[in-house]
Specification:
With 224 residues, this protein is mainly alpha-helical. It has 6 helices and 3 strands. Helix 4 runs antiparallel to helix 6.
């Protein structure tokens, strides 16, 4: 049998359990708010828009890096090309100087050979056709020219020429040497002509090399 309770006890019980229900409801509401905030934060971080923005950022950075590498490679190729062009220009200039020097030296040799006919009637020491007359001034010019342009002339050929020609010098009386201002070289004409032919051959070789570098036929350096 259920005993009846007094009114005051009933009021206290209602207040007690009513407060517990309200606390439970408040706890459930706070928990729901927390879970809702966490879900909202997770949705913001992992939303498709956010992921797409991060992806585009990485794609942009990758593009910048690739672009920088392409520019670097292009600069290296450009520098290599300019370096090769500079070396080619220097080689062309050197070949042109070689050809010009060989031609000038050959012209001087031919000029010396032509003086034999001019002095033949006055210079009794020309006893044979293969003799050669070289004035002191011309001989000094040859030595000076070859010394100044030794970088563009084959040194072995120049040294051999001066050695051979000096062995053929004819010792003349001082008065005759002073009157003519030079010396006779027995068989010197053959040495001079051989030296001239060799200079022409070298000039032709340099011109052929220059045509390969420029890839164009050269008419300016034709040797007469």
């Amino acid at each position: 049998m259920i005993r009846p309770i007094s009114r005051s006890v009933a009021i206290r019980l209602l207040k007690k359990y009513g407060t517990m229900d309200r606390q439970a409801e408040s706890f459930d509401l706070q928990s729901n708010l927390k879970f809702s905030a966490a879900d909202l934060t997770r949705e913001k971080i992992f939303s498709p828009q956010k992921i797409g923005g991060i992806f585009m950022l990485w794609v942009g950075l990758l593009g910048v890096v690739i672009g920088a590498l392409i520019v670097l490679v292009a600069l290296l190729i450009l520098f290599k090309y300019l370096e090769r062009q500079k070396a080619r220009e220097n080689e062309i200039a050197h070949k042109v100087k070689e050809i010009t020097t060989l031609q000038l030296l050959n012209q001087k040799i031919n000029e010396i050979l032509s003086k034999r006919n001019l002095y033949r009637s006055e210079y009794v020491s020309f006893d044979a056709f293969d003799d050669c007359y070289i004035t002191i001034d011309d001989y000094i010019y040859l030595q000076s020219f070859t010394a100044q342009n030794n970088f563009y002339l084959p040194s072995y050929l120049v040294e051999e020429f001066f050695k051979n020609i000096s062995h053929h010098k004819v010792v003349l009386p001082p008065d005759e040497t002073a009157r003519m201002g030079g010396y006779t070289y027995k068989g010197g004409r053959i040495i001079m002509e051989s030296f001239s032919d060799r200079l022409i051959e070298l000039a032709d070789e340099r011109r052929a090399q220059l045509e390969k570098l420029t890839k164009e036929p050269l008419r300016h350096f034709d040797v007469q």
